[in-house]
Amino acid sequence: MRKYIPFLFFAAAVLIAGTSNTSAQGSRSSVSGAEVTGTFRMNFKGKFSQQSNDIKIMALGRGKLRVAFDLVYPYTLPDGEISVNMGSLDGEATIAADTAIYSSDEFGPCKITIKFVKPGTIKVTQDGTDSDCGFGHNVWASGTYRKVSGKKPKFDE
Length: 157
Fold this sequence. Notes:
Layout: H1 5-24, H2 33-36, E1 38-43, E2 52-61, E3 64-76, E4 82-96, E5 99-104, E6 110-118, E7 121-127, E8 143-149
């Protein structure tokens, strides 16, 4: 029996660690309009650190959000100058619990999922190619964004 005690402690530790990790990444039942409304930004790293992708979100009520994406793909030209390919879209997403989905078939099958991970942080995943979503070459919405403003965003009309 004594030789099983260390194994039981190890098994209990693994079980506790797995449980706490699962609950930390689990879904929330809902998010407030104040949490979702604002401007979220993902900054690029390294020599492209002056570039960023921005997402404006505004709660409309009744499970709807207005979303506007301003995205870039930075790259270096042969002469060393930095340039970007761009992509943007403006539309309506549906939200249930802590996950919003924007979808469109205008250019091809495009689905962008916005998960409100915790207040001030969203995780975005894009299903569909850059051209399916109407973006420039290599422009993607996917990534982790941080809230940079909680003000009601202004959208282009």
